[in-house]
Amino acid sequence: MTYDLAVIGGGVHGSTVALFAARGGMKVVLIERGQLCREASGVNAGTLTMQMTRVALIPYALRAHAMWASARDWLGHDVGVVVCDGLSLAFTAQEEELLTFRAGKRREAGAPIELISGAQACAVEPGLSAGVRLAGYCKVDGYANAYLTGLAYRRALLEAGVDLRENVPASGIAREASGFVVETPQGPVRAKRIVLAGGVWIEPMMAWLGIHLPIKTLVNQLVVTERVRPVMRTVVGIANGLLSLKQYPHGTVVIGGGWQGVGDRARGGVELLPDRIIGNVRLACHAIPDLKASRIARAWAGLEAETADALPAAGPIPGIPDAYVCGSVHSGYTSGPYIARLLADRILGREPDLPLFPIDRLLAPRGVSEASQ
Ligand SMILES: Cc1cc2nc3c(=O)[nH]c(=O)nc-3n(C[C@H](O)[C@H](O)[C@H](O)COP(=O)(O)OP(=O)(O)OC[C@H]3O[C@@H](n4cnc5c(N)ncnc54)[C@H](O)[C@@H]3O)c2cc1C
After folding, report:
1. Could you give the CA distance from residue 299 to residue 281 in angstroms, rounded to a whole number?
2. Residue 366 has what pLDDT?
Protein backbone atom coordinates (compact mmCIF):
# COMPACT_ATOMS: atom_id res chain seq x y z
CA MET A 1 0.00 0.00 0.00
CA THR A 2 1.22 3.52 -0.75
CA TYR A 3 0.05 6.31 1.56
CA ASP A 4 -0.62 9.83 0.31
CA LEU A 5 1.48 11.16 3.19
CA ALA A 6 3.92 9.77 5.76
CA VAL A 7 4.65 12.01 8.74
CA ILE A 8 7.73 11.10 10.81
CA GLY A 9 7.63 12.41 14.38
CA GLY A 10 4.49 12.62 16.51
CA GLY A 11 4.95 15.84 18.49
CA VAL A 12 2.50 18.71 18.22
CA HIS A 13 3.80 19.60 14.73
CA GLY A 14 3.70 16.15 13.15
CA SER A 15 0.42 15.24 14.83
CA THR A 16 -1.28 18.42 13.61
CA VAL A 17 -0.08 18.03 10.01
CA ALA A 18 -1.24 14.41 10.03
CA LEU A 19 -4.62 15.31 11.51
CA PHE A 20 -5.48 18.06 9.02
CA ALA A 21 -4.10 16.16 6.03
CA ALA A 22 -6.27 13.16 6.97
CA ARG A 23 -9.31 15.35 7.47
CA GLY A 24 -8.56 16.84 4.05
CA GLY A 25 -9.01 13.39 2.49
CA MET A 26 -5.46 11.99 2.42
CA LYS A 27 -4.42 8.48 3.46
CA VAL A 28 -1.91 9.29 6.20
CA VAL A 29 0.55 7.26 8.26
CA LEU A 30 2.20 8.82 11.33
CA ILE A 31 5.41 7.13 12.46
CA GLU A 32 6.52 7.92 16.01
CA ARG A 33 9.59 6.43 17.65
CA GLY A 34 8.06 6.49 21.13
CA GLN A 35 4.58 7.58 22.09
CA LEU A 36 2.75 10.62 20.76
CA CYS A 37 3.80 13.93 22.32
CA ARG A 38 6.10 12.48 24.96
CA GLU A 39 9.12 14.61 24.01
CA ALA A 40 8.99 18.44 23.93
CA SER A 41 5.26 18.46 23.15
CA GLY A 42 4.40 16.55 26.32
CA VAL A 43 6.94 17.82 28.85
CA ASN A 44 6.83 21.56 28.16
CA ALA A 45 5.51 24.28 30.47
CA GLY A 46 2.25 24.59 28.54
CA THR A 47 2.38 28.39 28.43
CA LEU A 48 0.38 29.92 25.56
CA THR A 49 1.83 33.40 25.52
CA MET A 50 2.55 36.29 23.17
CA GLN A 51 5.08 37.92 25.48
CA MET A 52 7.77 35.25 24.95
CA THR A 53 6.96 34.63 21.29
CA ARG A 54 9.33 35.94 18.59
CA VAL A 55 7.99 39.13 16.98
CA ALA A 56 7.78 37.54 13.51
CA LEU A 57 5.62 34.76 14.94
CA ILE A 58 3.05 36.99 16.68
CA PRO A 59 0.46 36.79 13.84
CA TYR A 60 0.82 33.00 13.91
CA ALA A 61 0.75 32.79 17.71
CA LEU A 62 -2.44 34.87 17.91
CA ARG A 63 -4.20 32.47 15.55
CA ALA A 64 -2.70 29.49 17.35
CA HIS A 65 -3.91 30.84 20.69
CA ALA A 66 -7.43 31.00 19.26
CA MET A 67 -7.00 27.37 18.13
CA TRP A 68 -5.94 26.24 21.62
CA ALA A 69 -8.80 28.18 23.18
CA SER A 70 -11.23 26.24 20.98
CA ALA A 71 -9.33 22.93 21.10
CA ARG A 72 -12.46 21.02 22.08
CA ASP A 73 -14.05 22.09 18.76
CA TRP A 74 -11.28 21.19 16.30
CA LEU A 75 -9.25 18.62 18.26
CA GLY A 76 -12.33 17.18 19.89
CA HIS A 77 -10.58 16.39 23.19
CA ASP A 78 -9.48 18.27 26.26
CA VAL A 79 -5.94 19.49 26.88
CA GLY A 80 -6.86 21.55 29.94
CA VAL A 81 -6.57 24.94 28.24
CA VAL A 82 -7.12 27.93 30.53
CA VAL A 83 -7.25 31.40 28.94
CA CYS A 84 -6.19 34.05 31.43
CA ASP A 85 -4.27 37.32 31.70
CA GLY A 86 -0.49 37.35 31.29
CA LEU A 87 2.07 39.65 32.88
CA SER A 88 5.71 40.21 31.95
CA LEU A 89 7.51 41.95 34.82
CA ALA A 90 10.32 44.49 35.17
CA PHE A 91 12.02 44.84 38.57
CA THR A 92 14.93 47.08 37.52
CA ALA A 93 15.43 50.13 35.30
CA GLN A 94 17.27 47.94 32.79
CA GLU A 95 14.37 45.48 32.69
CA GLU A 96 11.92 48.40 32.26
CA GLU A 97 13.84 49.49 29.17
CA LEU A 98 13.94 45.93 27.80
CA LEU A 99 10.24 45.39 28.52
CA THR A 100 9.24 48.68 26.87
CA PHE A 101 11.19 47.71 23.74
CA ARG A 102 9.95 44.13 23.60
CA ALA A 103 6.31 44.97 24.33
CA GLY A 104 6.39 47.78 21.73
CA LYS A 105 7.69 45.46 19.01
CA ARG A 106 5.09 42.81 19.82
CA ARG A 107 2.31 45.39 19.90
CA GLU A 108 3.36 46.62 16.44
CA ALA A 109 3.07 42.99 15.28
CA GLY A 110 -0.49 42.79 16.60
CA ALA A 111 -0.18 41.44 20.16
CA PRO A 112 -2.53 43.33 22.50
CA ILE A 113 0.16 44.07 25.12
CA GLU A 114 -0.12 47.26 27.17
CA LEU A 115 2.37 48.60 29.70
CA ILE A 116 1.01 49.09 33.20
CA SER A 117 2.53 50.31 36.48
CA GLY A 118 3.58 48.02 39.33
CA ALA A 119 0.48 49.06 41.29
CA GLN A 120 -1.80 48.27 38.34
CA ALA A 121 -0.04 44.91 37.91
CA CYS A 122 -0.72 44.12 41.59
CA ALA A 123 -4.40 44.84 40.98
CA VAL A 124 -4.37 42.32 38.10
CA GLU A 125 -2.33 39.78 40.09
CA PRO A 126 -2.76 40.25 43.85
CA GLY A 127 -0.05 37.67 44.59
CA LEU A 128 2.62 39.82 42.97
CA SER A 129 5.69 41.24 44.70
CA ALA A 130 5.59 44.94 45.59
CA GLY A 131 8.96 45.35 43.82
CA VAL A 132 7.48 45.38 40.30
CA ARG A 133 8.18 48.71 38.52
CA LEU A 134 6.46 48.06 35.21
CA ALA A 135 4.58 45.17 33.59
CA GLY A 136 3.52 44.10 30.12
CA TYR A 137 -0.15 43.13 30.38
CA CYS A 138 -1.76 40.89 27.77
CA LYS A 139 -5.23 39.40 27.85
CA VAL A 140 -4.33 36.83 25.18
CA ASP A 141 -2.40 34.44 27.40
CA GLY A 142 -2.97 31.22 29.26
CA TYR A 143 -1.76 27.65 29.46
CA ALA A 144 -2.55 24.03 28.69
CA ASN A 145 -1.74 20.76 30.43
CA ALA A 146 1.04 19.57 28.15
CA TYR A 147 0.93 15.99 29.41
CA LEU A 148 -2.63 15.66 28.06
CA THR A 149 -1.55 16.61 24.52
CA GLY A 150 -0.66 13.10 23.38
CA LEU A 151 -3.87 11.57 24.73
CA ALA A 152 -5.99 14.19 22.98
CA TYR A 153 -4.14 13.91 19.65
CA ARG A 154 -4.13 10.10 19.73
CA ARG A 155 -7.93 10.02 19.90
CA ALA A 156 -8.31 12.71 17.24
CA LEU A 157 -5.84 11.02 14.85
CA LEU A 158 -7.52 7.63 15.18
CA GLU A 159 -10.95 9.19 14.63
CA ALA A 160 -9.57 10.89 11.49
CA GLY A 161 -8.40 7.51 10.16
CA VAL A 162 -4.65 8.11 10.47
CA ASP A 163 -2.59 4.91 10.56
CA LEU A 164 -0.82 5.63 13.84
CA ARG A 165 2.42 3.72 14.34
CA GLU A 166 3.76 4.38 17.84
CA ASN A 167 6.95 2.81 19.19
CA VAL A 168 8.20 2.56 15.60
CA PRO A 169 11.49 4.37 14.96
CA ALA A 170 12.13 5.41 11.37
CA SER A 171 15.74 4.80 10.41
CA GLY A 172 16.03 6.14 6.88
CA ILE A 173 14.28 7.34 3.74
CA ALA A 174 14.87 6.28 0.17
CA ARG A 175 13.34 7.89 -2.91
CA GLU A 176 11.67 5.89 -5.64
CA ALA A 177 9.63 6.75 -8.72
CA SER A 178 6.28 6.91 -6.90
CA GLY A 179 7.57 8.82 -3.85
CA PHE A 180 9.40 7.70 -0.71
CA VAL A 181 10.18 4.55 1.24
CA VAL A 182 10.56 5.01 5.00
CA GLU A 183 12.64 2.30 6.68
CA THR A 184 11.16 0.98 9.95
CA PRO A 185 11.55 -2.21 12.04
CA GLN A 186 8.06 -3.18 10.78
CA GLY A 187 9.35 -3.05 7.20
CA PRO A 188 9.27 -0.34 4.53
CA VAL A 189 6.44 2.22 4.54
CA ARG A 190 5.67 3.76 1.14
CA ALA A 191 4.21 7.23 0.68
CA LYS A 192 3.83 9.79 -2.11
CA ARG A 193 4.81 12.62 0.23
CA ILE A 194 6.72 12.91 3.51
CA VAL A 195 6.88 15.39 6.38
CA LEU A 196 9.86 15.34 8.74
CA ALA A 197 8.63 16.59 12.12
CA GLY A 198 11.25 15.23 14.49
CA GLY A 199 11.80 18.18 16.85
CA VAL A 200 15.51 18.31 17.73
CA TRP A 201 15.93 15.14 15.64
CA ILE A 202 15.06 16.97 12.43
CA GLU A 203 18.80 17.37 11.81
CA PRO A 204 19.55 13.59 11.62
CA MET A 205 16.30 13.07 9.66
CA MET A 206 17.35 15.65 7.05
CA ALA A 207 20.71 13.86 6.79
CA TRP A 208 18.80 10.80 5.47
CA LEU A 209 18.05 12.98 2.45
CA GLY A 210 21.65 14.23 2.22
CA ILE A 211 20.78 17.69 3.54
CA HIS A 212 22.60 19.42 6.40
CA LEU A 213 20.14 21.55 8.37
CA PRO A 214 21.77 22.60 11.66
CA ILE A 215 19.33 22.43 14.60
CA LYS A 216 20.45 23.60 18.03
CA THR A 217 19.32 21.59 21.06
CA LEU A 218 18.18 23.50 24.16
CA VAL A 219 17.88 21.51 27.41
CA ASN A 220 15.11 23.34 29.28
CA GLN A 221 14.62 22.57 32.97
CA LEU A 222 11.19 22.78 34.62
CA VAL A 223 10.00 22.52 38.21
CA VAL A 224 6.55 21.75 39.61
CA THR A 225 5.53 22.40 43.22
CA GLU A 226 3.28 20.35 45.41
CA ARG A 227 -0.39 21.39 45.40
CA VAL A 228 -0.74 24.62 47.32
CA ARG A 229 -3.58 27.03 48.10
CA PRO A 230 -4.22 29.61 45.34
CA VAL A 231 -1.21 31.96 45.17
CA MET A 232 -1.70 33.43 41.67
CA ARG A 233 -4.28 33.68 38.85
CA THR A 234 -2.27 34.89 35.85
CA VAL A 235 0.65 33.66 33.75
CA VAL A 236 3.73 35.53 34.99
CA GLY A 237 6.99 36.05 33.15
CA ILE A 238 9.88 38.47 33.36
CA ALA A 239 11.18 40.91 30.74
CA ASN A 240 14.44 39.00 30.15
CA GLY A 241 12.53 35.74 29.55
CA LEU A 242 14.09 33.84 32.45
CA LEU A 243 10.80 33.11 34.18
CA SER A 244 7.49 31.53 33.30
CA LEU A 245 5.07 30.78 36.08
CA LYS A 246 1.47 29.72 36.47
CA GLN A 247 -0.72 27.84 38.93
CA TYR A 248 -2.90 25.02 37.65
CA PRO A 249 -6.49 24.65 38.84
CA HIS A 250 -5.54 21.66 41.03
CA GLY A 251 -2.95 23.78 42.88
CA THR A 252 0.48 22.90 41.49
CA VAL A 253 2.69 25.73 40.21
CA VAL A 254 4.91 25.09 37.18
CA ILE A 255 8.13 27.15 37.16
CA GLY A 256 10.27 27.52 34.05
CA GLY A 257 12.16 30.08 32.04
CA GLY A 258 14.61 28.14 29.91
CA TRP A 259 17.24 27.55 32.60
CA GLN A 260 19.50 25.00 30.93
CA GLY A 261 20.30 21.48 32.14
CA VAL A 262 22.62 18.90 30.62
CA GLY A 263 21.76 16.67 27.68
CA ASP A 264 21.81 16.36 23.92
CA ARG A 265 19.77 14.83 21.17
CA ALA A 266 21.58 11.49 21.38
CA ARG A 267 20.97 10.98 25.11
CA GLY A 268 17.97 13.23 25.90
CA GLY A 269 17.92 15.35 29.06
CA VAL A 270 20.36 13.51 31.31
CA GLU A 271 21.15 15.84 34.21
CA LEU A 272 19.45 18.66 36.07
CA LEU A 273 21.66 21.43 37.41
CA PRO A 274 20.49 22.22 40.98
CA ASP A 275 22.14 25.67 41.09
CA ARG A 276 20.14 26.75 38.07
CA ILE A 277 16.94 25.22 39.40
CA ILE A 278 17.44 27.16 42.63
CA GLY A 279 18.08 30.35 40.63
CA ASN A 280 14.85 29.78 38.69
CA VAL A 281 12.86 29.06 41.87
CA ARG A 282 14.31 32.10 43.67
CA LEU A 283 13.20 34.31 40.80
CA ALA A 284 9.72 32.75 41.00
CA CYS A 285 9.54 33.46 44.75
CA HIS A 286 10.75 37.00 44.10
CA ALA A 287 7.81 37.51 41.71
CA ILE A 288 5.18 35.68 43.81
CA PRO A 289 6.36 35.81 47.46
CA ASP A 290 3.72 33.35 48.74
CA LEU A 291 5.49 30.64 46.75
CA LYS A 292 8.26 30.58 49.38
CA ALA A 293 6.07 28.35 51.55
CA SER A 294 5.65 25.63 48.90
CA ARG A 295 7.88 22.63 48.27
CA ILE A 296 9.21 21.36 44.95
CA ALA A 297 7.56 18.07 43.98
CA ARG A 298 9.52 17.28 40.82
CA ALA A 299 11.94 18.72 38.29
CA TRP A 300 12.72 17.53 34.76
CA ALA A 301 14.34 18.55 31.50
CA GLY A 302 13.13 18.42 27.90
CA LEU A 303 14.74 19.18 24.56
CA GLU A 304 13.71 22.19 22.49
CA ALA A 305 14.86 22.71 18.88
CA GLU A 306 16.10 26.00 17.48
CA THR A 307 17.31 26.99 14.02
CA ALA A 308 20.22 29.40 13.42
CA ASP A 309 17.87 32.40 13.15
CA ALA A 310 15.42 31.09 15.80
CA LEU A 311 12.59 31.13 13.25
CA PRO A 312 10.71 27.99 12.20
CA ALA A 313 11.74 25.36 9.70
CA ALA A 314 8.34 24.83 8.10
CA GLY A 315 7.86 24.26 4.39
CA PRO A 316 9.05 22.28 1.38
CA ILE A 317 12.52 20.72 1.37
CA PRO A 318 14.44 22.36 -1.48
CA GLY A 319 15.29 20.12 -4.41
CA ILE A 320 13.12 17.21 -3.22
CA PRO A 321 9.57 17.47 -4.55
CA ASP A 322 6.84 16.34 -2.15
CA ALA A 323 9.15 16.39 0.90
CA TYR A 324 8.46 18.83 3.74
CA VAL A 325 9.84 19.75 7.15
CA CYS A 326 7.92 21.14 10.14
CA GLY A 327 9.43 22.20 13.46
CA SER A 328 11.93 24.32 15.38
CA VAL A 329 9.25 26.86 16.23
CA HIS A 330 10.18 29.13 19.13
CA SER A 331 7.41 28.85 21.76
CA GLY A 332 6.43 25.98 19.53
CA TYR A 333 3.71 24.63 21.78
CA THR A 334 1.87 27.96 21.48
CA SER A 335 2.29 28.44 17.73
CA GLY A 336 2.85 24.86 16.56
CA PRO A 337 -0.71 23.81 15.76
CA TYR A 338 -1.33 26.83 13.53
CA ILE A 339 1.99 26.60 11.66
CA ALA A 340 1.51 22.85 11.16
CA ARG A 341 -2.04 23.43 9.90
CA LEU A 342 -0.66 25.91 7.35
CA LEU A 343 1.71 23.21 6.12
CA ALA A 344 -1.17 20.72 5.89
CA ASP A 345 -3.04 23.28 3.73
CA ARG A 346 -0.03 23.57 1.45
CA ILE A 347 0.25 19.77 1.15
CA LEU A 348 -3.48 19.57 0.36
CA GLY A 349 -2.93 22.06 -2.48
CA ARG A 350 -4.62 24.99 -0.72
CA GLU A 351 -3.07 28.42 -0.38
CA PRO A 352 -1.99 28.84 3.28
CA ASP A 353 -3.50 31.93 5.00
CA LEU A 354 -0.02 33.10 6.13
CA PRO A 355 3.39 32.37 4.59
CA LEU A 356 5.34 29.29 5.67
CA PHE A 357 9.00 29.41 6.73
CA PRO A 358 10.98 27.78 3.89
CA ILE A 359 14.36 26.43 4.96
CA ASP A 360 16.39 27.64 1.95
CA ARG A 361 17.66 30.48 4.18
CA LEU A 362 19.14 27.97 6.65
CA LEU A 363 21.04 25.77 4.21
CA ALA A 364 24.68 26.49 3.51
CA PRO A 365 25.74 26.41 -0.16
CA ARG A 366 26.51 22.77 -0.89
CA GLY A 367 30.32 23.09 -1.01
CA VAL A 368 30.49 25.01 2.29
CA SER A 369 28.08 22.61 3.99
CA GLU A 370 30.08 19.56 2.97
CA ALA A 371 33.34 21.18 3.96
CA SER A 372 32.04 22.03 7.41
CA GLN A 373 30.84 18.51 8.28
C1 LIG B 1 10.98 21.93 28.91
C2 LIG B 1 10.34 22.70 27.78
C3 LIG B 1 9.45 23.72 28.08
C4 LIG B 1 8.81 24.40 27.03
N5 LIG B 1 7.84 25.31 27.36
C6 LIG B 1 7.10 25.86 26.36
C7 LIG B 1 6.01 26.70 26.70
O8 LIG B 1 5.69 26.91 27.87
N9 LIG B 1 5.30 27.25 25.67
C10 LIG B 1 5.62 27.02 24.36
O11 LIG B 1 4.95 27.57 23.49
N12 LIG B 1 6.63 26.19 24.02
C13 LIG B 1 7.38 25.60 24.99
N14 LIG B 1 8.39 24.74 24.66
C15 LIG B 1 8.66 24.46 23.25
C16 LIG B 1 7.69 23.40 22.69
O17 LIG B 1 7.47 22.37 23.62
C18 LIG B 1 8.26 22.83 21.39
O19 LIG B 1 8.59 23.89 20.50
C20 LIG B 1 7.25 21.92 20.65
O21 LIG B 1 6.60 21.04 21.54
C22 LIG B 1 8.01 21.14 19.58
O23 LIG B 1 7.13 20.22 18.96
P24 LIG B 1 7.68 19.27 17.81
O25 LIG B 1 6.53 18.48 17.34
O26 LIG B 1 8.44 20.07 16.81
O27 LIG B 1 8.79 18.35 18.54
P28 LIG B 1 8.64 17.14 19.57
O29 LIG B 1 7.51 17.34 20.49
O30 LIG B 1 10.00 16.94 20.18
O31 LIG B 1 8.29 15.90 18.65
C32 LIG B 1 9.24 15.28 17.81
C33 LIG B 1 8.91 13.80 17.78
O34 LIG B 1 9.73 13.15 16.82
C35 LIG B 1 9.94 11.83 17.30
N36 LIG B 1 11.07 11.22 16.60
C37 LIG B 1 12.38 11.58 16.67
N38 LIG B 1 13.12 10.76 15.91
C39 LIG B 1 12.27 9.86 15.35
C40 LIG B 1 12.46 8.76 14.47
N41 LIG B 1 13.67 8.39 14.03
N42 LIG B 1 11.36 8.06 14.09
C43 LIG B 1 10.11 8.40 14.53
N44 LIG B 1 9.90 9.43 15.38
C45 LIG B 1 10.98 10.16 15.77
C46 LIG B 1 10.21 12.04 18.78
O47 LIG B 1 10.04 10.85 19.52
C48 LIG B 1 9.18 13.12 19.12
O49 LIG B 1 7.97 12.59 19.63
C50 LIG B 1 9.09 24.08 25.68
C51 LIG B 1 10.02 23.07 25.39
C52 LIG B 1 10.62 22.36 26.42
C53 LIG B 1 11.57 21.23 26.09
Report:
1. 11
2. 54
Residue 317 Cα to ligand 1 midpoint, Å, equals 20
Distance (angstroms) between ligand 1 centre and the Cα of 271 equals: 18
pTM of the prediction? Answer: 0.96
Ligand 1 binding pocket mutation candidate from 17, 29, 33 (most atoms within 8 A of CB) = 33
Band of the pLDDT at 372, cuts 50, 70, 90? very low
Range list of H helices, 3-50: 12-23, 40-43
276 and 284 Cβ atoms separated by less than 8 Å: no
Return the number of other C-beta atoms located less than 10 Å from residue 62's C-beta.
19
Cα 11 to ligand 1 centre (Å): 6
Nearest residue (CA) to ligand 1, atom 21: 41
Q: Is the CB of 198 under 6 A from ligand 1?
A: yes
Sign (positive or negative) of CA dihedral 114, 119, 120, 123:
positive
Helix axis angle for 332-347 and 12-23, nearest 10°, is 30
pLDDT tens readout for residues 278-298: 999 999 999 999 999 999 999
Of how many residues is the chain composed? 373
Q: How far apart are CA 242 and CA 258, in angstroms?
A: 6
Calpha distance 131→133 (Å, rounded): 6
Does residue 362 line the site of ligand 1, with CB under 6 A? no
Q: Considering only CA atoms, which of 16, 109, 5, 22 is closest in space to residue 336?
A: 16
